[in-house]
From TrEMBL, chain A:
Keywords: Membrane, Transmembrane, Transmembrane helix. Coiled coil: none annotated. The chain crosses the membrane at residues 16-35, 55-74, 95-115, 150-170, 182-203, 232-254. It comes from Occultella gossypii. The lineage of its organism: Bacteria, Bacillati, Actinomycetota, Actinomycetes, Micrococcales. This is ABC transporter permease.
UniProtKB/TrEMBL annotation, chain B:
SMART domains: AAA. Coiled coil: none annotated. Belongs to the ABC transporter superfamily. Keywords: ATP-binding, Nucleotide-binding, Transport. This is ATP-binding cassette domain-containing protein. The keyword Disulfide bond does not apply. GO terms for molecular function: ATP binding. It comes from the Bacteria.
Length: 260, 306
């Protein structure tokens, strides 16, 4: 497992796809903060304001996150490096390592948005959220944060990034099955929005709503600037357990599968 | 300690109604090079996938390195190096980075193995060139180096010279022979090309439609495919005496049907015939015979593939 993990981390360090996605997230986060500031100042017209939404964390992380999961999990099947990986360690270790690295990659995509929120608040930048996501709400308003405020922004950002990783974790078993990064990206991106619609529909039935509360798709789990510590911990636990569950599903799918 | 590196018993793989590998029982010994020969779709790659744990058998057992477990254990699989279908390269990395990645994967602590293997396969001077920009031959050689990174005892190579130019074929062939001779590695190498394997392998496993049709050593294959002059005469004893004393050769075999297989003088049958007649030996049958490698292969698989 450790060898597999070290190899996967080494691969990502030298992966053009990973580096490009991370840089794109950094650029998008910076641009999003600036454009939200322009929105607040009234410097953008309505049409441009719609375009700003395309740079929001919900769009960028879901798109690039599902692509990264596809690259991390599916690519070894394309390059055949999975052959050596499965000679070196068990299928369980292979899936466990991929799950950890995939979740970490999506988490890292959220970091630039967290930093942007922190910068926005620290500089007293006036912003108008184009989409009311956690990061946008963190950056939105409030006094310049003191040390505790900075800690809160960091904590909420970390939980929001973990939650993104959990919401996209369904891409891990999907990537094991389809073995095509581009398919995983398309399916993951669509799923991120469809899941919210399904959860919204499920809210009509009490039993279904109770079940969805155990998933990272429940609206209750969205970390907010004023979320309590208990809520943040609860959301983190749900997210981590869901990621582990998706890893388990991926392992069950790979356990006796023929590898081409 | 047993010299058996791999023993399969009744190994079978079915995909729905189709049987890809059917009741295959083979034994591979340490330090030998086994050529797995079969036409496309004969089941070679499926067999190799089962041996390397990539595919689970429908029936039968695989014993690696003397293990009594019916299916390969992880610690036994870790003693295998493989190149199946395509080299496991990460195109965005250099040769050295690819070596480093697989060394991490295999948990090999000694970093000097990277340099050693790159030198072995002649890729030590590729610098910052990405593997994606390598020629086919370079990719194959790097794939072999990656397969060797954990110092395997069994090397499984699926058509490693496919698509290589003649120089590349010679290089890979020499590399495989050196590995078996100098490191004692057992090599299982597949090909649909018997003449190519004839120059590499020490043993042959001929498969067709998922079944092993025949196993034989290099010596046996040479016997099967050797060309000779087949001579019959009423006085067999006189025939052999003339061959020895007057033609000056002992390179012949008397067959159970009393015919003689003469392996020398293949280019001068007229001289042989003249010598026999001159010494009053009148052949009742005189013909040049022998199989080509392809002919032998076709005869083994029943000639139903062209």
């Amino acid at each position: 497992m450790i060898n597999q993990l070290r190899a996967d981390l080494f691969t990502q360090r030298h992966s053009t796809g990973f580096i490009v996605c991370l840089l794109a997230a950094c650029g998008a986060a910076a641009a999003y903060l600036y454009l939200q500031h322009q929105l607040a100042l009234g410097g953008l017209n309505a049409a441009a304001a719609n375009g700003v939404q395309g740079l929001s964390d919900v769009m960028v992380i879901n798109l690039l996150g599902s692509l990264l999961i596809g690259l991390i999990v599916s690519r070894p099947f394309e390059t055949k490096s999975v052959h050596d990986a499965l000679l070196a360690s068990s299928r369980g270790s292979f899936v466990a390592s991929k799950t950890v690295v995939a979740a970490l990659a999506v988490f890292l995509l959220g970091v630039p948005y967290g930093i942007a929120a922190l910068v926005g608040r620290a500089t007293g930048l006036e912003v108008a959220p184009a989409v009311p996501t956690t990061f946008a709400l963190l950056a939105e308003s409030g006094a310049e944060p003191d040390a505790a405020g900075v800690g809160r922004i960091i904590a909420v950002s970390v939980v929001a990034a973990i939650l993104y990783a959990a919401r996209l974790a369904v891409c891990i078993p999907l990537a094991i099955v389809v073995k095509r990064p581009i398919v995983v990206m398309a399916a993951g991106f669509v799923w991120a929005f469809v899941a919210d619609l399904l959860v919204g529909a499920a809210a009509k039935w009490e039993a279904l709503e109770a079940i969805t509360r155990l998933t990272p798709y429940a609206p209750d789990h969205l970390p907010l600037p004023d979320s309590s510590g208990g809520e943040l911990v609860g959301t983190s636990i749900v997210a981590v357990v869901f990621i582990a569950l998706m890893g388990l599903v991926a392992w069950l799918l790979l356990r006796r599968a023929d590898i081409k | 300690m047993s010299d058996d590196v791999l023993v399969t018993q009744g190994l079978t793989k079915r995909y729905g109604p189709a049987t890809a590998v059917d009741d295959v029982s083979i034994r591979l010994e340490r330090g030998r090079i086994y050529g797995l020969i079969g036409a496309n779709g004969a089941g070679k790659t499926t067999l190799m996938r089962m041996i390397t744990g990539l595919s689970l058998p429908t029936a039968g057992s695989i014993s690696l390195f003397g293990s009594t477990a019916a299916t390969p254990r992880q610690q036994d699989l870790a003693r295998i190096g493989s190149l199946i279908e395509a080299p496991a390269l990460t195109g965005s990395m250099t040769a050295r980075q690819n070596m480093h990645l697989h060394r991490l994967l295999r948990g090999v602590p000694d970093a000097s193995v990277e340099t050693e293997l790159l030198e072995l396969v002649g890729l030590s001077d590729t610098g910052r060139k990405r593997a994606a920009d390598f020629s086919l031959g370079m990719r194959q050689r790097l794939g072999i180096a990656l397969a060797l990174i954990s110092d395997p005892e069994l090397l499984v190579l699926d058509e490693p010279v496919n698509g290589l130019d003649p120089v590349g074929v010679v290089e890979v062939r020499r590399l495989i022979r050196d590995l078996a001779r100098e490191r004692g590695i057992t090599v299982l190498i597949s090909s649909h090309n018997l003449p190519e394997l004839f120059q590499t392998a020490t043993d042959y496993i001929i498969v067709d439609r998922g079944s092993v049709k025949r196993t034989l050593t290099l010596g046996e294959l040479e016997d099967e495919t050797q060309h000779f002059l087949r001579i019959e005469a009423r006085d067999g004893e006189r025939l052999t005496t003339v061959l020895e004393q007057d033609l000056g050769t002992e390179d012949f075999t008397v067959m159970p049907d009393r015919s003689v297989r003469l392996r020398s003088h293949l280019d001068e049958p007229e001289k042989v015939l003249r010598t026999l007649v001159a010494h009053d030996v009148w052949p009742t049958s005189f013909a040049a015979e022998g199989e080509t490698l392809e002919g032998f292969f076709l005869s083994v698989i029943g000639g139903h593939r062209s």
